[in-house]
Amino acid sequence: MGSASRKTFLPLEPMSFKNESKEVIDFISDYYQKIEEFPVQSRVEPGYLSAKLPDSAPYCPESLQDILKDVNDCILPGLTHWQSPNFFGYFQANASTAGFLGEMLCSGFNVVGFNWISSPAATELESIVLDWMGKLLKLPSSFLFSGTGGGVLHGSTCEAAVCTLAAARDKALKKLNGWENITKLVVYASDQTHFTFQKAAKLVGIPPSNFRLIETNSSTGFSMSPQQVALTIENDIKSGLVPLFLVATIGTTPTGAVDPIGELGKVAKKYDIWFHIDAAYAGSACICPELRPYLDGVELANSISMNPHKWFLTNMDCCCLWIKEPKFLVESLSSDPEILRNNASESKSVIDYKDWQIALSRRFRALKLWVVIRRHGLANLMYHIRSDISMAKRFEEFVAKDERFEIVVPRNFALVCFRIKPKEEIEGNELNRKLLEAINSSGKAFMTHAIVGGIYVIRCAIGTTLTEQRHVDDLWKLIQEKAQSLLMEKI
Amino acid sequence: MGSASRKTFLPLEPMSFKNESKEVIDFISDYYQKIEEFPVQSRVEPGYLSAKLPDSAPYCPESLQDILKDVNDCILPGLTHWQSPNFFGYFQANASTAGFLGEMLCSGFNVVGFNWISSPAATELESIVLDWMGKLLKLPSSFLFSGTGGGVLHGSTCEAAVCTLAAARDKALKKLNGWENITKLVVYASDQTHFTFQKAAKLVGIPPSNFRLIETNSSTGFSMSPQQVALTIENDIKSGLVPLFLVATIGTTPTGAVDPIGELGKVAKKYDIWFHIDAAYAGSACICPELRPYLDGVELANSISMNPHKWFLTNMDCCCLWIKEPKFLVESLSSDPEILRNNASESKSVIDYKDWQIALSRRFRALKLWVVIRRHGLANLMYHIRSDISMAKRFEEFVAKDERFEIVVPRNFALVCFRIKPKEEIEGNELNRKLLEAINSSGKAFMTHAIVGGIYVIRCAIGTTLTEQRHVDDLWKLIQEKAQSLLMEKI
User: What is the ipTM of this complex?
Assistant: First the structure.
């Protein structure tokens, strides 16, 4: 098995790496060029792909051309095109050239930065870029490395939730002096909070019956009532339970609602519970001074997370988590196996990010966020946010001006929640469900829905990287057209 | 904010995407070309990077050239070069052109495949490729979708551990009829098991005092004794505890040891506990018929995981998890928020992978593994494994033939654990620590260590994608040279 025979198989040879990579770049670039030609939501039926692909792996190597042909013929039809400018579903997942470049550098170096020594640049750039991002959001220095806190990149909000919940849990269990108290710990959120926090709380062993969903309603724009939270906490204390964790949201998933951070923070302080802010979607917007007030009160939080992979032109996946007292994260998540021991770690002068997250192995994600911030600069990043909000305002005005429709929840940020105003309230949900289905099955645009206060609303989330005003205008024409047909049918 | 002004900022314009991406491809290709020129382990000091970069984000966009210049000048010196052919540390993280291409497609499409409808191809390709991979490993059909089981891609073994532990936990708690029994659940592993399982067990709320580390020793090559496991289980049952989960390893991190799967499986069956196989490192090798016997007994497991991102030419991150009864995973991890409701999911005819993992959001990782398998074919993938093992054998022979050295643990796979044979045992650890430090600080190669049975061993993990026989030969010369200096010093 000498060098000679090895030459027959060179899976990372620089010249073929270069040539094949450029072929794929051309393929992806072509895809962006023709992305509007695809139906936004995939039209395939369950099981479509197994009919097109062999049921076991090939023995011999296949050519890149054959593989790309299959990507084109078999994979593209099965995609729901999140990068289409006509994608208005869920929350957007912003891709950008800069994000892609950062992802390529990450994948090309392919280092595993679990601790400082395993690639110092990976750890140090992550700390630096978390401080950059924190400063863009004007977070208090208590969350920054340049102050007394620090930040870490996770893959998802759920991961951030699992880690902060575990940190809070272990801090509490230490104080309560016994693991059996885990069944007494209680987590507070609203009925609009992302379900990922329920999942995370259950994952870390908190009984699902100890997860309190504070009810919200339209009178407060579906934001959480601090009084209600305090009342619920009092009740739990009376029952011998231990309030642990409160999560507030800036920009809820159903409607973009904003919880009153300042007031909730005071409640959290009063009862000495961990206060986490989930700004997954709308956090990005707070880089604009006119939107920064949404974060007022953040100084009362123990931790805050937001996802640059939603609205910050950063390709999947990238979630920033800042924490005031990283020691609680490290105490809960650290491990010190002999196999990873090294002088730098023992000196305590470095960060080992493996102790700030679930997994040991970790990708060099910081490169991606760093390239995104530098390539765009704060100026263009603000432009991006403002442009999306401006398009959402325009769309909101279209809706408001058409008396067949109504805005169900006042718009925050770039999410518009609307519906056809039903003649009879009882018909409203079915009517709007049909409208959404008609729009999505047209292939020309894609939106999703929510139900708030019993009302089915159509969510128009504006902010895909490629979306321009003409796409929003076309969307509104499409909605009007489909609504007209539906309303005609009814007559 | 019309289309006109939007034209000033086009962060995903296809032509600039193409041009800038190709520049980065050239940069990475150049990096591979000169990778042997860098010291393998970074020589920077803690804090080096903050001295080189500004402490806050730029307001104006910067050019790609400026960014790449900084990557070159500031980031590369801070990398420990995992893709260097002279990297023999930890376990390798195989990059390959194919893996990189798959990663680019994933990042380019940037779909978020949390459920089937959000991009059917992402879900379906993942199921297909997990079956392909399972068949390459000759897993019983009880683990495959084409049989009665199924698989999912996670980012890391720890994530797989958290999810399977949560599934086992919730299955047990349901049977025990009360969450308070969480403090009775016990997990079994060996003192060689990856520490990630301890971390995962604690994460899911199992008291750290209920994690049993079965002692191993050199007489069994540091593999776990089924008798010892059974005895420990019996003791726990007598104490009123509830045995929950047993993890066995194929290719432990310290020495590449293999636990006796078949015998351990019988113990697990007898006590009705969840049996997980961690084949993170060595699982890839089992695609070769001559190595497949290591997996004998896998039919007794409830779940098995392995990491293509280690030894299977798949860029970070990629962990395969197969499970016999996916329903337990789904029962533990599922969520059904209104906002994600759709006909396909309600029909129960599709898989929603969000219920098979921690996070909601998920990247289209399956593309990467699919491109890797197709581009290489089983033939070359086997060649890759066999070539590494052959180089490891050769290295092992070098060590065995030099009487100053000894092989401490018999080699399995492509990991060689050796040391300088000390004159006095008491000097052995310090002597070998110094040897490893001398090698690593030379910059010419990088290895890591383990301590087993009190003995400090140097681990030579062969299998970086670019490693050829000449690198292994050079490594041995370097080791001999540094050992000679050390032994001379001592005289």
Answer: 0.97
